[in-house]
Amino acid sequence: MRSDLTNEEGIPLETVTPRNHLLLQADGSPFIMLAGEVHNSSSSSAEYMEPIWKKAAELGMNSLLLPVTWEMVEPEEGTFDFRIVDELIDQARRYGMKIGFLWFGAWKNAQCYYAPAWVKTDTVRFRRAEVEKGKKKIHLQEFHGMPYTTLSYLCEATNEADANAFRELMLHIRSVDEQERTVIVVQVENEPGLQGAAREHSAAADAAFESAVPQPFVEYMRGHTSTMAADVRQAVESGAGSGNWMEAFGEAAEEIFSAYHVASYIEKVAAAGKEVYSLPLMVNCWLDKGDKPGIYPSGGPVSRMMEVWKHCAPSIDVIAPDIYVQNFCEVCDDYVKMDNPLFIPETATHGYAGPRLVYVIGHYHAIGYSPFGFEDMGKPFTAIESYLFGVDVGDPMLGTPQSMEEYAWYNRTLGSMMPLLTSKYGTTDLQATIVERPERDTMVFGEYGFQTWMKLPILSRKDGVCLVLKKAKDEFYILANGCAITPFSANPQKPHVDTLSLEEGLFQQGEWRMARRLNGDDVARMRFESPTLLKIKLFGYQ
Ligand code: N0T
């Protein structure tokens, strides 16, 4: 009997706070995107996409994240061409899948790669950012001298043109898809922000930075310090409470200034689209890793600027992290503050991809998870991928691509449980543990609990994961891999537990189908070395 994990009312101490989890809908029901994001150039051609849809289907995915680019849909100002959008929607329907479109507008990885030629060439009307005084093109030292330029977040004309194109895109999607709803979410821009400096340095930017911060914004920031990153909070609290950006926000002023303007820009784009077709909208970010703003895109929707973004961009429903770093769970923790639903639009395709998928659904009740460049899953990593994924040859999980067979099993199994899973979202009836968090190896569900073991002398796996869903007070579904499980009682009146039945099986058309009845050694050890779905019934007694 373990009572240490519940409070006096018997409420588990580690609870899931209800959030806006059921945001995404497909075919009239809540939907978790078991997705993949294609490489940047794949979705510019339906023909090129054909085998990629096939691979997605083989991988058990239910949706894809696909770039739609400004340069392709508005090649000349005011002339729109949505053929590629229609073709992608047709393909998705043929494969029975949903789409999240990624609007590659003014920003793509903090640059303006995807702005149409008529925008790129009119540098007077569509001003570039001055990263350094008088310099619109610099070479980023941190990225091997990579040339860098981007559009100014202070340029009205760019903002209007971008918003107009996005409105046309959303209008078009509505006209072809409002009935079927193949497109269920849209990401506005991609990893926005400014690189090379914490803020722009044109004369106009300097003047804006010197002028008074809108007072309601200062007050909002001072009223929202409880969720802020420590250094941001300190800067905001030690600020003067009014005045120019430096006076109001001290050390954090330049990043907050950029976030304010980037978020306000994107709000205009998002609102223009939402007004004509109200789909859930998200933004994604290039993470900060303790480095200075400008090394990561300054003003981008990183968790340390989430307070700014939630205030300035109310049309954005989700702030989503692109996670290639190894402290994956810590990053997730940062992105569920302020009731932000967890959506991972990009992550690495190495060996942790599968267990992390299970964990984000079980623990964070994530609404979407999508390995990036999934069309290469199963192939050896390229040099660029090794760099991006932080591949460490000493860690076989990082050095090895995710097994496709296993990933497909996870997707299919989670997909088959969709209505059950979503019915438990926002409640403590759905929990998970993962090998990456050995200190959180226990789950309590009212009268019963489960202790999971992922590192034992006889079992030491790096992909251990366990998701538990409470079906009835003494009955549970368990999705497990690389772990051993011990059920226990959390009821002081009935401290002992027997396992009445343990079945291995799967869901078919929403019905549980037993494949094997497990007992004897299999109940004694309850150890699962390959992905397994179980149904267990427990009995507590004195
Ligand atoms: C991602 C992807 C794609 C220290 C990179 C991650 C995708 C974009 N950017 O392959 O380009 O479209 O959103 C940026 C992370 C850079 C970290 C630098 C390594």
Question: How would you summarize this macromolecular structure in one to three sentences?
Answer:
The protein contains 18 helices and 25 strands.
CATH A-level architecture of the largest domain:
Alpha-Beta Barrel
Largest sheet at a glance? 9 strands, parallel
Write down the CATH class of the largest domain.
Alpha Beta
What fraction, in percent, of the residue positions are helical?
Answer: 25-40%
Rg, nearest Å: 24 Å
* Mean pLDDT over all positions: 94
The termini sit apart by 11 Å
Strand content: 15-25%
Mass-distribution shape:
globular
By DSSP (H or I, 4+ residues per run), the number of helices equals: 18
Number of strands: 25
**In terms of structural class, how would the helical and strand content be classed?**
alpha/beta
Q: Any low-confidence stretches, pLDDT <50, length ≥5?
A: 1-9, 11-18
Q: Spell out the CATH superfamily of the largest domain.
A: Glycosidases
CATH names the topology of the largest domain as TIM Barrel
Q: Give the distinct bound molecules.
A: ligand N0T
Largest sheet: spatial strand order: 11-13-3-4-5-8-9-10-12
How many distinct folded domains?
A: 2
Domain Glycoside hydrolase 35 catalytic: 25-127
Organism: Cohnella thailandensis
Pfam family, one: DUF5597
InterPro entries: DUF5597 (IPR040719), GH (IPR017853), Gly_Hdrlase_35_cat (IPR031330)
